[in-house]
Design a protein that fits this description.
2 copies of one chain form a homodimer. The first copy, chain A, is α+β, with helices and mostly antiparallel strands and 237 residues long. Chain A folds into 2 domains: 3-161, Nucleoside Triphosphate Pyrophosphohydrolase; 171-227, Arc Repressor Mutant, subunit A (Orthogonal Bundle), CATH 1.10.10.10. Chain A contains 7 helices and 10 strands. Chain A binds chain B through residues 8-11, 45, 47-52, 54, 72, 74-79, 105, 107, 109, 159, 163, and chain B through 8-11, 45, 47-52, 54, 72, 74-79, 105, 107, 109, 159, 163. The first copy, chain A, binds a DNA duplex (30 and 30 nucleotides) through α7.
Chain lengths: 237, 237
DNA sequence: AGCTATTGTATCATCTGGATACAATAATCG
DNA sequence: CGATTATTGTATCCAGATGATACAATAGCT
């Protein structure tokens, strides 16, 4: 069975995978073998597969992640997204032919994912030789329109931040309010007043207080919390 | 030149076109020749054409509309969107063969458009024999997943309503605050307090008061306004 | 034991939005 | 022709949310 029969031609998907670590918002970026080409993890859609399922599969195959918060944010359909040239350059470097199937123009559906950094166990695939978390403010130049994709994904994330309970996907099960606040601040790109943030978050009645945290630091220990999803999803903020 | 060379295979796009008239939010729906099949206006993407341009073109070709507020809202990639069956049924009714090209599974990018009802001059295409504005609450059963598309488009519209200056695309150049309020109410699906709506809208500093309206009605005449887009797009609501 | 950095909570002022009141006014009706 | 009616424009009161500041509690350090 050839590629054309197995996958839908001229459509791809790419994933902007967000993680949070050391007070920084990070994106998972692949580096192609024997090259300085960086790209987002992406893949194709099988003929007998739902688009959204394909995204889950691609994410799994290329990064080992499963059960991830994953959502479409935009479909990139520029005539000249740059793939062909880039693919060729990469193929030259690697002394391989680009399959004819890949020569054509592609339309790519962009997904963004939110993952718990601490749970990620990266697996490498055949073409990429490194796969790293990179601070959103220190991204290298990415292949094709992938830089635009990250920008657009972040924009969507900011917009949806206060519409859905997204942030908790970026945190471990248990966390402090200070950590939670840091996530908000990093995504929004601005600082928030600690006391008011605390009041607001607690008033939402979505956090379950667990116990005191042993910090080992020379100051009062904060409480630990767990996200407690409310039954009534209707109202928000 | 055959279809396969001209258009990207297995990708389509569909448009949910919103208009406002007689205090109702309406959607433009096509009815196929010799059938009871209703569908959204849609089309395909040329090999040498941007996705978003294709949407503008399709809109133009099928409805005569140009310069329209048009935006992606979701990409529909269910394995079984129902096209094949529906296409066949329609083809049978019309004693025509479905081109092989169309037999395959399609992924469709959904766009929504906001148009000034008063400016629309509908033109019919070859396959549809009627093209009507239908109240969003009185839609017939639509082909494939188009009913879902309308629902998702409306959801997006509601979300973006307070993020961007969308509503004014649905109104003529000049309007009263009462008319503006009616648009908000219809989209949001609930009534708003007149006095507070007026205060809020005027405080945003986006309306230019023109003159008094001669109504011919037995009561105080309202002012007319024009939308005055602010330079600073940053802050909103 | 006192110091320091941080946390948890209270409080005050300000802003925003819901609700009500009321004067202004353009036609119509008696 | 003045009273009536429906609607518009604006003011005001009140409750709840948010911004800003104050301060006591506390875990480890010196």
């Amino acid at each position: 069975m050839n590629l054309e029969d197995q996958y839908i031609p001229q459509i791809s998907l790419d994933c902007v995978i967000f993680g949070f670590h050391a007070s920084q918002l990070k994106v998972l970026v692949l580096r192609f073998k024997n090259s300085d080409f960086f790209a987002l993890p992406g893949g194709f859609i099988r003929q007998d597969e739902d688009l959204n399922e394909a995204a889950q599969r691609v994410l799994m195959e290329r990064t080992g992640l499963t059960d991830v918060y994953l959502e479409q944010f935009y479909t990139f359909g520029q005539r000249e997204r740059g793939e062909v040239r880039m693919q060729r350059e990469w193929a030259e470097v690697n002394k391989r032919d680009v399959p004819q199937w890949l020569e054509k123009r592609f339309i790519s559906v962009g997904f963004y994912a939110l993952v718990d950094f601490s749970k990620v166990n990266l697996t490498m695939d055949a073409i990429s030789d490194s796969c790293d978390w990179i601070d959103i403010n220190e991204l290298p130049v990415l292949m094709m329109d992938h830089t635009l994709m990250v920008a657009k994904a972040l924009e969507t994330l900011r917009l949806e931040l206060n519409q859905k309970w997204l942030v908790f996907n970026l945190l471990p099960e248990i966390f402090t309010i200070a950590e939670l606040q840091k996530v908000y601040e990093t995504i929004l790109g601005r600082t928030l007043l600690r006391t008011n943030f605390q009041r607001k978050i607690l008033s939402l009645d979505i956090l379950k207080r667990i116990e005191k945290k042993y910090t080992g630091k020379a100051h009062k220990a904060p409480y630990l919390y767990r996200f407690n999803k409310p039954e009534n999803e209707d109202k928000f903020y």
